Amino acid sequence: MKGFAMLKIGEAGWIEKSRPSCGPMDAIVRPLALAPCTSDVHTVWEGAVGERSNMILGHEGCGEVVEVGALVKDFKPGDRVLVPAITPDWNSVQAQAGFSMHSGVMLGGWKFSNTKDGVFGEFFHVNDPDGNLAHLPKNISVEDACMLSDMVPTGFHGAELADVQYGDEVLVIGIGPVGLMCVAGANLRGASRIIAVGTRKVCVDAARLYGATDFLSYKDGPIEEQVLAMTKGQGVDKVIIAGGDNDTFDPAVKCLKAGGRIGNVNYLGSGTFVKIPRAEWGVGMGHKTIAGGLMPGGRLRMEKLSRLVSLGKLDVSHLLTHKMKGFENVEKALFLMKDKPADLIKPVVTI
Ligand code: NDP
Ligand code: ZN
């Protein structure tokens, strides 16, 4: 079969591989639609998780089951399925401890396009389908379904990590597709004021639709100066980070009230340390919590989040600025994600 792969750090291209084999607790799925992620860009062009050779990329998509193992109960060939980017080993002790995304080892639930071939192949392998797949609701399009793999669960996890409460004033740093879902998640959790940080007009417009009330650009001066001016020097209750770099914790801590929380879902692709400002962190005693997390995966979360879409409480279609048809366009879609033209939020490819 064909797949679009990371050949080595800094290089991606098409390769031929044999179709994955199906163990007793596995499923083989044929993609119906696929989307690239900024994380694929970090992985290939920053070498963020280290060298990988000839590894098929991609962890966002939906598909049709073509084969299941003898022990799989709830899925059969022909079923159309939602596929989470994170597919934990549900019988691991880490999952029992409540951190399924770290099953086996830290980040171990992140298998697609990290420790095994991803979804940008003519077929892909899913471990523990009963625990990881979900049936695709009939009224969700295959394009929208791709946003349930990663953008919705990650963005909403940002709001969970920051523990957004009714009435909170929330700063969302970065409003690409992940940050936009942080805005939507914070809004659904009852945030009052949501200050969104980004520059691309298409993202600013979408952020407004998802519930952002105020906007600023990191290019117009230090974020903390702008946020403190907007909040009469008080800062915000919660900060969600979905963009920027290792130094973004600096303005985030400076914008946060004592006792506040930062939820980070940004993937720090390079460098060694993050920057935390000593004085504004209360000289170590400000009760400003910093939580960073990989999105939780698995079936239950897919089923719950997809209900928000199928019942009309969350419209993910605003994210989809570039729609293409044909498996070969996966390559073009990934390069769009790398180059980030001004009118792009998220590309999606139907097969
Ligand atoms: P995008 O590149 O589309 O968006 C990044 C956003 O950050 C843009 O709004 C951009 O603004 C803004 N930004 C860029 N530089 C700065 C800066 N210096 N200060 C403040 N804001 C800045 O990324 P995605 O939304 O696709 O992904 C966001 C991050 O989430 C990525 O690192 C991705 O790898 C990660 N991720 C994490 C996952 C997890 O499970 N934790 C899963 C999936 C993704 P502008 O408008 O100027 O472009
Ligand atoms: Zn991703």
TrEMBL record:
This is Alcohol dehydrogenase (NADP(+)). PROSITE patterns: ADH_ZINC (PS00059). Residues 23-349 form the Enoyl reductase (ER) domain. The lineage of its organism: Bacteria, Pseudomonadati, Spirochaetota, Spirochaetia, Spirochaetales. InterPro entries: ADH-like_C, ADH-like_N, ADH_Zn_CS, ER, GroES-like_sf, NAD(P)-bd_dom_sf. It comes from Parasphaerochaeta coccoides (strain ATCC BAA-1237 / DSM 17374 / SPN1) (Sphaerochaeta coccoides). Its EC number is 1.1.1.2. The keyword Amino-acid biosynthesis does not apply. Its cofactor is Zn(2+). GO terms for molecular function: alcohol dehydrogenase (NADP+) activity; zinc ion binding. Keywords: Metal-binding, Oxidoreductase, Zinc. Belongs to the zinc-containing alcohol dehydrogenase family. It comes from the Bacteria.
